[in-house]
Amino acid sequence: MTVLDSALDTGGPDYEVHRSAMLEKLAALDAEHAKALAGGGEKYTARHRGRGKLLARERIELLVDPDSPFLELSPLAAWGSTYPVGASLVTGIGVVEGVECLITANDPTVRGGASNPWTLKKALRANEIAYANRLPVISLVESGGADLPSQKEIFIPGGALFRDLTRLSAAGIPTVAVVFGNSTAGGAYVPGMSDHTVMIEDRSKVFLGGPPLVRMATGEESDDESLGGAAMHARVSGLADHYAVDEADAIRQARRIVARLNHRKAHPDPVAAEPPKHDPEELLGIVPGDLKTPFDPREVIARIVDGSDFDEFKPLYGPSLATGWARLHGYPVGILANAQGVLFSAESQKAAQFIQLANQRDIPLLFLHNTTGYMVGKEYEQGGIIKHGAMMINAVSNSKVPHLSVLMGASYGAGHYGMCGRAYDPRFLFAWPSAKSAVMGPQQLAGVLSIVARASAAAKGQPYDEEADAGLRALVEAQIESESLPVFLSGLLYDDGVIDPRDTRTVLGLCLSAIHTAPVEGARGGFGVFRM
Q1: Domains in the chain: how many in total?
Q2: If you average pLDDT over residues 497-502, what whole number do you get?
Q3: Is residue 246 located within the same domain as residue 114?
Q4: pLDDT digits over 261-308, tens only?
Q5: For the ranges 57-61, 336-340, 486-490, which has the lowest average pLDDT?
Q6: 197-212 b/e with 16+ CB inside 10 Å = b?
Q7: 8 Å CB contact between 345 and 380
Q8: Which residue intervals define the domain CoA carboxyltransferase N-terminal in the entry (predicted)?
Q9: Secondary structure class of 16 (helix, strand, coil)
Q10: Which of 111, 198, 281, 503 has the highest local Cβ count within 10 Å?
Q11: Among 249, 254, 211, which Cα is nearest to 229's?
Q12: 206 to each of 181, 191, 249, how far by Cα in Å?
């Protein structure tokens, strides 16, 4: 039998300590997510409602099929910056008329929905997901355009938004824009470059230059309606394909557009899947608060895959990396999960072979991170750890099957790369609140800087200031610790969201379903030179 047994002692003190620590992190995470949900705050939310308008997430709720899930992406974008958490944009994947779609919605309660640099990064990431997975894009537009004080960070790279819309359309991926209010300046190109555009009577305003700009540029006097109102665009310019009487009607029309797309998934839906035999609630107590303490990733696998059924590949070779085959919500997956943190030569070679096998079989790969990186030291350097680590990274880089990554614990150094970190284009990457990622651990990094400083002082024949060294180490450790936390990295859009461990199976299932909208095909050869 390949059903995983569990050695997790849910009645033991360690489990309860780990569970309590995770619940504390989740409570802190909820507080940060609440900031995104609050948008521009009570004042601007009340003003928006006073105009008879729905909030961004309310529009999405009406758009998606009743009782269907919406997987919100990058909700913590801009965390830690001077801009509001969420970056004045909601993005995610939802089902509309039975079709999985990538949905974006401006939040007009945040500076009128104006785009700041993080809005742009978040929108570009959403387009990237839509393109890779062939998901129709629905843009719920209400934005005053670029946040002008930060235009230097938006204007030049911002052109990629419009490039993306045209490339999506050229690739046969439908794009739909529903305009709820202003869509001005460069933002006018969103409805202008979408395949289908819905505008609302007396609400939609779409123009390259509003009345003040037109007056300044040409001396012409004009009003909003004649310059860019929905009626004008529906009857005169032809920009509006559909004319709605209110927001609910616009959303209804958008749903009908999707219903008529004839957009089909490349793969049929899988058969109904058996749930895990072990309780996903127990995922809260697996990861230790101190990531130096190892944990068995099979305990995680047993709580996320169908029937807890896992066929392990090379279980006795390279035991610090668990590899094997499973199904998740009916979809086949190959799993690579760090067991004891460190990657040695055997683990690296095993991973490279496993990745090649997944590509031959057209099976997506799931990477479960808990690694401090590749092993260092004279014995391991002489044993070829560099070329073997490079072999694993080569395989990850040139693999063509979709990759999913979940950061559970540590994800440090080149181990982050070998396990398909953000730079290696996983289709989706999520983190648990327990995760940490950096070039190395805070203590190690501070210690390296201390050793270098000591050597420099010795070379100059100068005494070494131990008190200053201790202060510097403490400062560096605190900085690296804060910069390795998941909310900080999520704010930089280095992941697609920080998730509750108990939601991992659901989130991955939604992602796998979206992935199978596009063909899943592995590399047939095409890998770089594997150094032996």
Answers
A1: 3
A2: 98
A3: yes
A4: 999 999 999 988 999 999 999 999 999 988 889 999 999 999 999 999
A5: 336-340
A6: bbbbeebbbbbbbbbe
A7: yes
A8: 22-273
A9: helix
A10: 198
A11: 211
A12: 8, 8, 19
**321 and 393 together in one domain:** yes
Same domain, 140 and 166: yes
| HSE-CB of 472 using CA atoms within 13 angstroms | 16
448-484 per-position pLDDT tens digit: 888 888 888 888 888 888 888 888 888 888 888 899 9
Q: Give me 302's structure tokens.
A: 């047993």
DSSP per-residue codes, 175-231:
EEEEEEEEEEGGGGHHHHHSSEEEEETTT-EEESS-HHHHHHHH-----HHHHHBHH
| Residue at 332 is within a domain | yes
Residue where the block lists tokens 């590509």: 359
Q: Is 4 exposed, middle or buried (0-12, 13-18, 19+ CB in 10 A)?
A: buried
What's the sign of the alpha-carbon dihedral 427, 431, 437, 441?
Answer: negative
Residues 204, 181: Cα–Cα separation, whole Å? 4
Collapsing DSSP to helix, strand or coil, 15 comes out as helix
Give Cα 117 to chain centroid, integer Å.
17
- Among 172, 166, 111, smallest CA distance to 136 is for 172
What DSSP element (H or E) covers 394?
Answer: helix 385-398
Contacts 24+ apart (CB under 8 A), 43-46: 44/109, 44/110, 45/109
Whole-model pTM over 0.90: yes
Please classify residue 334 by burial: count the beta carbons closer than 10 Å to its beta carbon, then call 0-12 exposed, 13-18 middle and 19+ buried.
buried
d(CA 263, CA 28) in angstroms, rounded, equals: 40
Whether residue 6 is contained in a domain is answered as: no
Give CA–CA dist 461/458, Å, rounded: 5
Question: Helix, strand, or coil here: 363?
Answer: coil
Give 271-287 as a DSSP string: PP-PPPSS-GGGGGGTS
pLDDT of residue 1: 62
At 125 the three-state DSSP class reads helix
Total count of residues recorded for the chain: 532
**Considering the domain boundaries, does residue 527 fall inside one?**
no
Of 323, 324, 401, 418, the residue nearest 364 (C-alpha): 401
Q: Are residues 180 and 233 in the same domain?
A: yes
Predicted local confidence at residue 152, as pLDDT: 83
Beta strands, E only, 345-422: 365-371, 373-374, 403-412
- Domain shared by 418 and 301, yes or no: yes
**How confident is the model at residue 276, as a pLDDT?**
98
Q: Are residues 248 and 203 in the same domain?
A: yes
Q: What is the largest CA-CA distance in the chain?
A: 83
In a domain, 5, yes or no: no
- Range of 220's domain? 25-259
